[in-house]
Amino acid sequence: MTTLENVKYNADGLVPAIAQDTQTGSVLMMAWMNAEALNATLETRRGTYWSRSREKLWVKGESSGHIQHVKSVSLDCDGDTILLAVDQIGPACHTGAETCFTGREIS
Amino acid sequence: MTTLENVKYNADGLVPAIAQDTQTGSVLMMAWMNAEALNATLETRRGTYWSRSREKLWVKGESSGHIQHVKSVSLDCDGDTILLAVDQIGPACHTGAETCFTGREIS
Fold first, then answer.
1. Are B79 and B86 in contact (CB under 8 A)?
2. Which Gene3D superfamilies does this chain map to (chains A, B) (predicted)?
3. What's the pTM value of the predicted model, to 2 decimals?
């Protein structure tokens, strides 16, 4: 176990967050969180991120309905990466793909 | 499928790379790659990263023996995150834990 105080944000106040599907084990996506997004994720148990392009908090699925029920939130050994275990409703990717990596192997 | 030309590096010339274990499905670690590290990973099929603290290329396991045999390299939908499927030899974390997230749930 660890605590929120151990999260190390980067110079922009952000930490990368990886979402993994509890059912399939697939890595669904990686997005960024600021402290507010991380706190919201822990309190609401909905995957919540910081949109760097729109510069605002972003509840995953707020428009598409493809929300993430967050089952656990872990911090890596050096405190600078988050891993979320999520029950993903619908496809995780905005393209409609199951994950943001589906069919995207580099050849 | 996609190609190397579609990788979008950040202002520091880096892209985050998530390593996932092919056997267990566990997310093992997240580290950073520059173009040289990504090319080396694709050519040698050994997980190779850029160490931001040491400012040098870093072959995972070069000192510990805990190398990663890379089975596939995928790029996410917007081109700014890499996902590696790896056969991890030994523990992935420098602490000796199976993954860098093992036992690190935020409570």
1. no
2. Phosphoribosyl-AMP cyclohydrolase
3. 0.97
Question: Is ipTM over 0.95?
Answer: yes
State the smallest CA–CA distance between residue B68 and chain A in angstroms. Answer: 18
| Number of CB pairs, chain A paired with chain B, less than 8 A apart | 95
**Which CATH topology does B3-88 take?**
Ubiquitin-like (UB roll) (3.10.20)
Dihedral sign for Cα atoms in the order A37, A17, B14, B102: positive
C-alpha–C-alpha distance, residues A41 and A59, integer Å: 9
- Map residue B78 onto helix, strand or coil: coil
pLDDT in tens, A32-84: 999 999 999 999 999 999 999 999 999 999 999 999 999 999 999 999 999 99
**For A12, phi and psi rounded to 5 degrees?**
-90, 5
Pairwise CA distance, residues B26 & A15, whole Å = 20
Return the domain boundaries, chain B.
Answer: 3-88
Contact assignment for A97 to B77 by CB distance below 8 Å: yes
